[in-house]
């Protein structure tokens, strides 16, 4: 797959294959467009983080769960959900 300004397939040397042109593709869980706009993907990650916090509300507000445990849960679930594949942004 190839993206960019030109909307044509790329021919490899000596007929060894063709790389198809696409408008967008997913790499490491991140949607990459020909314009290079990552904002929709970033907003999607933020929303997934919010959803994770919502699902964990009963644990995060439980007074019997220590702050240390809550921090571990945050790093393991919420932070990893938000930052997954961030190196591609």
Protein architecture, described:
The chain has 89 residues and is of the alpha+beta class. It folds into two domains: 36 residues, no CATH class; 52 residues, no CATH class. The chain has a two-stranded antiparallel sheet with strand order 1-2. Strands 3-4 form a two-stranded antiparallel ribbon. A hairpin with a 6-residue loop joins strand 1 and strand 2. Helix 1 runs antiparallel to helix 2. The longest helix is centred in the middle third of the chain and has 22 residues. The two termini are 19 Å apart.
In short, what is this structure?
It is built from two helices and four strands; from the N terminus they run ββββαα. By secondary structure, the chain is of the alpha+beta class.
Number of strands: 4
Relative helix content = 40-55%
Strand content: 5-15%
Report the major sheet: 2 strands, antiparallel
Tally of alpha and pi helices: 2
Strand order of the largest sheet: 1-2
Uncertain segments: none
Number of domains: 2
- Per the principal axes of the C-alpha atoms, what is the gross shape? elongated
For the residues shown, what is the average pLDDT?
Answer: 81
What is the CA-based Rg, rounded?
20 Å
């Amino acid at each position: 797959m190839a993206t960019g300004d030109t909307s044509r397939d790329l021919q490899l040397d000596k007929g060894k294959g063709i790389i198809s042109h696409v408008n967008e593709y997913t790499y490491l869980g991140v949607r990459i467009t020909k314009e290079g706009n990552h904002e929709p993907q970033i907003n999607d990650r933020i929303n997934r983080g919010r959803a994770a916090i919502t699902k964990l509300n009963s644990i995060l507000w439980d007074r019997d769960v220590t702050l240390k445990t809550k921090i571990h849960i945050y790093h393991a679930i919420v932070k990893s959900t938000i930052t997954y594949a961030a190196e591609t942004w």
